[in-house]
Design a protein that fits this description.
about 200 residues; 5 strands; globular
Length: about 200
């Protein structure tokens, strides 16, 4: 049993994350089946089931994250999962809805060039978007789409034929993030899982 525990490197709970050097646990989101508010799309629990356990967990994380960002003067957060299907899009969309309900102007940027999904979560068009702005095909303000919430805006990934992961490390991306920070209280960036992208 001891050997099994030592060799098993899977994350089983928040305490396992806290053991990683220079990391801090902002909160814990329980499994969706544990929410007595019912089942449904996990990506929009803040909107669809605002009194549920999952929604409350996202509100708590939003509060902790907000406090941390204010202390450091940051406005941009990159959300990256380890493996495909780990839920980064659900985290981004619910954090955005939680921040929007707290009165913040939020921009969600879909930088997942492999499997973008934020435009589907919010029921928006997939282009023009991020890659169109970075290639000069569209202006930043033209590519931003508002959700029905009004406080949350989305910059979808953009045209399929222009998507390359290398665009995220350009000066254009740096400029885009600077412009986003100047116009929004919080910028959340969703990207591809670390195990499948650089």
């Amino acid at each position: 049993i001891v050997a099994s525990e030592i060799l098993d490197q899977r994350v089983k709970g928040p305490a396992d994350i806290a053991l990683i050097p220079r990391t801090r646990v902002l909160g814990f989101i329980p499994d969706a089946i544990e929410d007595p508010a019912g089942s449904g799309a996990v990506e929009t629990v803040m909107r669809d089931r605002p009194k549920g356990v999952l929604a409350e967990s996202f509100r708590n994380i939003r509060g902790t994250l907000s406090k941390r960002l204010n202390q450091t003067g940051h406005r941009t957060v990159l959300v990256v999962s380890g493996m495909p299907g780990s839920g980064s899009t659900s985290v981004v969309s619910n954090l955005a809805l939680a921040a929007g309900s707290a009165g913040q102007r939020v921009l969600v940027i879909d930088a997942n060039m492999r499997r973008p999904g934020l435009h589907r979560v919010f029921g928006l068009a997939d282009q023009p978007g991020l890659v169109d702005v970075l290639t000069g095909s569209a202006r930043f303000d033209q590519a931003i789409q508002r959700t029905t919430d009004g406080r949350v805006s989305v910059l979808s990934v953009g045209s399929k034929d222009k998507r390359t992961l290398e665009m995220l490390s350009t000066n254009g991306m740096t400029d885009l993030l600077a412009e986003a920070r100047s116009k929004f209280d919080l910028v959340l960036v969703d990207c591809a899982p670390a195990i499948v992208s650089g």
